[in-house]
Amino acid sequence: MIFDNLRLYHFLWLAQLRQTLQYRVSFILDVLSTSLVTILEFSAFALIFAKFQGLGGWSLPEIMFLYGMVEFAFGLTDMVFDGFDSPTFSAHIRKGTLDQFLLRPANLMIQIFGSSLSFRRIGRVILGAGIFGYALIYNPQVWHLEKLMYLPLVVLGMNLYFGALFLVGASITIFTVDSTDAMNLLTYGGKDMMSYPMNIYADWLRIVFTFLFPVALLNYHPALFFLGKPDPFGLPDFMPFLAPVAGLVMFLLALQFWKFGLKHYQSTGN
Amino acid sequence: MRLFWEITKRAFARHLTYRTATITGLITNLFFGLLRASVLLALLGNSSSTGGWSAQDLVTYVALTQAIMMVVSIFGWSELMNTVYRGEIAAELLRPTSLYLFWLAQDIGRGLTALVTRGISIMLVCYLVFAIRLPTDFWHWMTVFLSLALAIGISFAFRFIVNLAAFWSPDARGIARFAFIVLGFASGFLMPLRFFPDWLQQFLALTPFPHMMNSTIEIYIGSSNTKPLELLALQGFWAIALTLVAQLILSRATRRLVILGG
Predict the structure, then answer these.
(1) Which side of chain B, N or C, has fewer Cβ within a 10 Å radius?
(2) B181 to chain A: nearest residue by CA?
(3) Does A9 reach chain B within 8 Å, measured CB to CB?
């Protein structure tokens, strides 16, 4: 069963890739413009950083550790979860493609995953990896076997968290048909927040985004461990290791909400 | 002129009807402003000012960019190229008014809605909560509004030119995406231009981009080294220059336009 699903996903994935590569020039333009967003956003910050004396006690390579990791993880999730992204998913509802998916004798989520993949996000993924790679070179304290083994789990935690947000966004779309601005606040706002150390934000903001939405658990606390920085808030020593758990819990909750949404799905009837 | 005013009024009323979108948009806008201000204030740290700007100036900068980003359409605009790709441009060109003025009137109407709904409410909230700076006197207010009007004019001419690419290329959307990303960076929306390295500031000063947002911010905040009249004159120059360039390209574009019936 799982094997069948993987084969179906692989098949749809290839179809999407072929479709994207049909328009080669416009695909390359898209990749370049997606990359330019990351380049200019990051350079704007890096260029003015020189005029100041650091950011909340963090050096530029240390911030690049956060920034690059988030950019990489978010780019990856954004690429894979494009079918659940509110604008894409609300089109499935409005055009009735969701009805088609539901009628087919195949796994629904695999079909939605396979319905759209934004390969142009690869620009963001590569640049994120580049920024992160630079940070790794300039932060030799990360080079320990146990830290390097934990690193992929932290990235996976972020993937699961962002994936959960896309899934919740899609589920809300089932009720509202149109995509919602409020989710952008969590998705893109959360992503922006994660790009910088959490101690620069007001206490209420940090507490909401640590304990209600586990944004700080996903990369700030792990980064303190990787970079060997003391926790300015004196939280327990296990905080850096909650990232994969937090991501998984959020994803499972989102999955429940998704099932709840589907149960209440009424076709737009066209 | 009367027609121009009527189109502007209609566009204003049309955009005003999306109330829920306005409220959620406002909250999102304030939230992102809060994040941006946190970063800038943390950069400032314990120093009292950097490059002539205090903490209050930094917060005012963020509030102002968040307030006017929709007014000057910092994220771009592609309605004109859509009419080209859908073929509606044929009907639009039949109108007895200039295509440029028709869309400019629409854009001013849209910009005014953004100013009244988003702009003023954001500035008011930021004034009450964060005690941002306000212009000092009547003359100062006038220069700010004049500068904002010129910024809309320059930004519109630039966006119009970018959209005209649709007459030549089927990939105008890709071209536009590039242009509008550069706009966000070079206009001082992402970060204040005065904190960029000198070479970059000098280079950007040769382009119209700073005059689509940064000049208005500089005039509003009004540090001691700002020369408002000089900035307004430069904005005036770019408004006229880009409008003329837009006219020139538009006349070329319409001359080579072939409409397929159907």
Answers:
(1) C
(2) A37
(3) no
Query: Is B111 within 8 Å of B120 (Cβ atoms)?
Result: no
> What global pTM score does this model have?
0.91
Quote the ipTM score: 0.91
Q: Cα(B212)–Cα(B149) distance, rounded to whole angstroms?
A: 10
Contact B43 A181 (CB under 8 A): no
Interchain contact, B28 vs A47, CB within 8 Å:
no
Residue of A nearest to B51 (CA): A51
| CA distance readout (Å), A150 to A77, A158, A160, A238, A240 | 19, 13, 16, 13, 10
Beta strands in chain A (DSSP E): none
Distance CA A157, CA A152 (A): 9
Encode pLDDT of A96-139 as tens digits.
889 889 988 888 999 999 888 889 899 999 999 999 999 999 99
Whether the CB-CB separation of B62 and B36 falls below 8 Å is answered with yes
Do residues B245 and B161 make contact, with C-beta atoms less than 8 angstroms apart?
A: yes
Q: String of b and e for A133-171 (b: at least 16 CB within 10 Å)?
A: eebbeebeebeeeebeebbeebbbbbbbbbbbbbbbbbb
